[in-house]
Each structure stands twice: as structure tokens, then as C-alpha cells.
Amino acid sequence: MDFALFDTPIGTCGIAWGARGLVGVQLPEPTVAQMRTRLRRQFPGATESTPPEKVQSAIDAIVTLLEGRSSDLSAIELDMLGVPEFHRRVYAVARTIPPGSTLSYGEIAARLGEPAWPAARDVGQALGQNPFPIVVPCHRVVAANGKLGGFSARGGLKTKLRLLAIENAPAATVNMPLFAELP
What we know:
By secondary structure, this protein is α/β, with parallel strands linked by helices. It folds into two domains: 2-66, Methylated DNA-protein cysteine methyltransferase domain (Double Stranded RNA Binding Domain, 2-Layer Sandwich); 85-166, Arc Repressor Mutant, subunit A (Orthogonal Bundle). The protein contains six helices and six strands. The strands form two sheets. It has a four-stranded mixed β-sheet. Strands 5-6 form a two-stranded parallel sheet. A hairpin with a 2-residue loop joins strand 1 (2-8) and strand 2 (11-18). Helix 4 crosses helix 5. The radius of gyration is 16 Å and the shape is globular.
């Protein structure tokens, strides 16, 4: 397993991969050193290295999206070995949400053929454990009645709003600078 850091308009992100595809994407930490530490802790034994062509293409697509330009991340190969089946199903639906759009937790549950309650809660828990943020766009999933819901990445709802604003999503109605430092 290997990992690399890459610069984006929102800060330095991380990406980890193995023989079957990406095993993780990490949104920015306060420092590059903290990013390396987090990736090494999350992927013990992984080595920082130059990304192979497929991984570099994924990085380029992520950077393009975070620059506010159109970018399709749906073909990026993800290694879901060890990801629970329900989570895989949730992530598959989330990957169909186009930039600038949102679905609610309940709408994802319905698309999975599950009852809105308690499945909406289970969808939220699955997304809270998403190892592939941006590629599996959990930031595009909101609570009922247009409320934002949660976001487990560093910066929480501020980060979620920032990502939605980059994509010009209707849920990003709060006036905040797109590239301000996160707390």
C-alpha cells in the first residue's frame, strides 16, 4: 500500500492506494506533517511514493472538482475490500449524485429499497465512515427539509458548506469565503 499528498484549492489532501484501487482519500489537516501522521496511522505500513498513472488521474480529477470545474469521479477505482456491504450500497448511490446536487439521507435509503427510518440513520452512519470523501461525495447528502446534517471530516459543517459552495449546490446558501482557513 502507498500514499501521496497533493495540493488543492482547499489545502493539502492525501490519497492512499493498493493493487485494487484507492483505499482512502483524506481531506486537509492543519499541517502537512499532521496529514502524513494521519495517513500513516490510518494505513500502517503504507509508503509515501509517486502515484501511478491511474492514481494520478484520480488526483487530477479531484483537484479539478475542487477548483470548481466539471470533473467526473465516477470511474475512479475504489478498493472496497473490508467495507461492509450496506456501506458499499450507500456509497454506490452517493456516487450518482452530480456536483451541484444533493440527496437526503432518507432519499438514499429509499433508493436502496429501505424504509426511511431507521435506514436514514444507518445511511448517515455509513457516510460518517466514508474512507473516500470527495470521490464518494458524502458532502452532497443532507438531512430532511434541506438541513445540512453532519459531516465527519475536519471542519465539520463548515467544510461541507465549503465543498457544496465550490459545486454551486443550492444547500450552500451561507455566505462564507470558499478558500478561508478552516478552524
